[in-house]
């Protein structure tokens, strides 16, 4: 895809029609005059453009469209494709189209698209856990969106800055970003129930992390009420996105844009449901941690339904929160059944299996089932000794050592505690 000068457009259409300069000129002008126009050495009059448009069977608007307008349409196309690629987690494709789009946005000083592509870079870097890079690009995007007074993306960029700040450990900063997003949403009467629910949940989570339980519950309850009306919708967009890219390769911008917009719309619907499922899951965790187990179960049930529908890998996170609730209720049999189900479903997923061992230890410890505590810890150690999870192995060595210390088997206890200490020293967690 490229921006064409007026002369390049005329030449492109002439080649598409298989016309020579003489055939296009007809009896109105000379082939030489057309050649000068095509090379950019001469500017045609409106009358001549109307004549050429008629001869080339195209609208005169096609010739009159400025280079800036073409660049804007190309950026719109790249933006739509990029957004769809990010939602479908195809980050290589997304970065490819960001670079292409930024070229035109910078060349023609299209600030809106500069901001969007900065925002997309921030989202990708956040997904890749490059938090400093994500923060820098998101601040750049936010600054441009504020100058442009683009309410939707001002809010979205504040939200992303909040999420980045949480991951960096700056909870108060994150809370301020979420409150700013909510203030702008309210000030401009911007109606977006998914966005509002997302903001309310994040404010609640920040208050929870800051130890303000009363405010955490208040905002979590507001988020819950918003989410009550939001469910349903699905579809897929990969085929539409591929169609769009295919049309772009043929320089058919109109069809490329049309299919890109459809793909974006469909992926946006999928993303909204994923966001809803994540909010529901996190609300479930929040209510679990504040002691309202029934509320927690209600949200987790909705989260699981959505996550299983979209085959979302984070379904296991929701199931572990379910297990937390069963442990709180002292329903250890249900907790064990659920943990074993997770283990069977997770297959070769190493991180899930390690977490399963952690939960088995917690459940058996709560039951005071010392035989199975020992079995589960020994299995965990045997499993981890063949992997590269050093910190986790040290943790289980330490737990096993403490278990044997309580059992008055001091030699075994010291053996495993020392193994754990050696790993902690190697990792720099304990200084020698």
Describe the overall structure.
The protein is mostly helical and 432 residues long. It has 3 domains: 6-64, lambda repressor-like DNA-binding domains (434 Repressor (Amino-terminal Domain)), CATH 1.10.260.40; 67-271, Serine Threonine Protein Phosphatase 5, Tetratricopeptide repeat, CATH 1.25.40; 343-432, Serine Threonine Protein Phosphatase 5, Tetratricopeptide repeat (Alpha Horseshoe). 79% of the residues lie in helices and 0% in strands. It contains 22 helices and no strands. Helix 14 (238-249) packs antiparallel against helix 15, helix 17 (315-328) runs parallel beside helix 19 and helix 19 (350-367) runs antiparallel to helix 20 (370-384). The longest helix has 37 residues, at 253-289.
Features of the shown structure:
DNA-binding; 434 Repressor (Amino-terminal Domain); Serine Threonine Protein Phosphatase 5, Tetratricopeptide repeat; mainly alpha; TPR repeat; 432 residues; single chain; Lambda_DNA-bd_dom_sf; 79% helix; DNA binding; elongated; 3 domains
Summarize the structure.
This protein is mainly α. It has helices at 6-16, 21-25, 31-38, 46-55, 60-64, 67-87, 91-107, 111-127, 131-148, 151-167, 171-187, 193-209, 213-227, 238-249, 253-289, 293-309, 315-328, 332-346, 350-367, 370-384, 390-406, 410-426.
């Amino acid at each position: 895809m490229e921006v064409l000068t007026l002369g390049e457009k005329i030449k492109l259409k002439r080649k598409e029609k298989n016309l020579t300069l003489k055939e296009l000129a007809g009896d109105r002008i000379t082939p030489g005059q057309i050649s000068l126009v095509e090379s950019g050495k001469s500017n045609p009059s409106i009358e001549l453009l109307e004549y050429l448009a008629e001869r080339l069977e195209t609208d005169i608007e096609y010739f009159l469209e400025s280079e800036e307008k073409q660049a804007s349409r190309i950026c719109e196309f790249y933006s739509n494709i990029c957004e769809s690629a990010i939602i479908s987690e195809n980050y290589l494709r997304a970065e490819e189209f960001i670079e292409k789009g930024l070229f035109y946005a910078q060349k023609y000083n299209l600030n809106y698209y500069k901001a969007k592509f900065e925002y997309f870079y921030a989202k990708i870097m956040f997904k890749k856990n490059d938090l400093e890079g994500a923060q820098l690009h998101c601040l750049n995007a936010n600054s441009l969106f504020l100058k442009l007074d683009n309410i939707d993306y001002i809010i979205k960029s504040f939200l992303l800055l909040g999420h980045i700040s949480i991951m960096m450990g700056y909870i108060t900063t994150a809370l301020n970003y979420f409150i700013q997003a909510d203030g702008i949403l309210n000030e401009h009467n911007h109606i977006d129930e998914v966005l509002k629910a997302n903001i309310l949940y994040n404010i609640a989570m920040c208050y929870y992390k800051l130890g303000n339980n009363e405010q955490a519950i208040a905002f979590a309850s507001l988020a819950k009420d918003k989410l009550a009306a939001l469910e349903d919708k699905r579809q897929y967009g990969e085929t539409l996105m591929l169609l769009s890219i295919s049309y772009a390769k043929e320089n058919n911008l109109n069809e490329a844009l049309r299919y890109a917009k459809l793909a974006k719309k469909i992926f946006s619907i999928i993303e909204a449901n994923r966001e809803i499922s994540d909010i529901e899951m996190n609300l479930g965790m929040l209510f679990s941690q504040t002691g309202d187990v029934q509320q927690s179960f209600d949200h987790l049930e909705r989260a699981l339904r959505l996550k299983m529908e979209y085959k979302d890998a984070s379904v296991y996170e929701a199931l572990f929160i379910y297990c937390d609730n069963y442990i709180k209720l002292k329903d250890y049999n249900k907790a064990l059944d659920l943990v074993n189900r997770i283990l069977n479903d997770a297959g070769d997923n190493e991180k899930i299996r390690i977490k399963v061992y952690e939960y088995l230890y917690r459940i058996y410890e709560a039951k005071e089932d010392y035989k199975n505590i020992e079995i589960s810890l020994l299995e965990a150690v045997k499993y981890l000794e063949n992997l590269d999870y050093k910190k986790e192995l040290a943790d289980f060595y330490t737990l096993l050592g403490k278990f044997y210390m309580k059992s008055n088997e001091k030699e075994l206890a010291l053996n495993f505690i020392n193994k754990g200490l050696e790993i902690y020293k190697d990792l720099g967690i304990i200084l020698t």
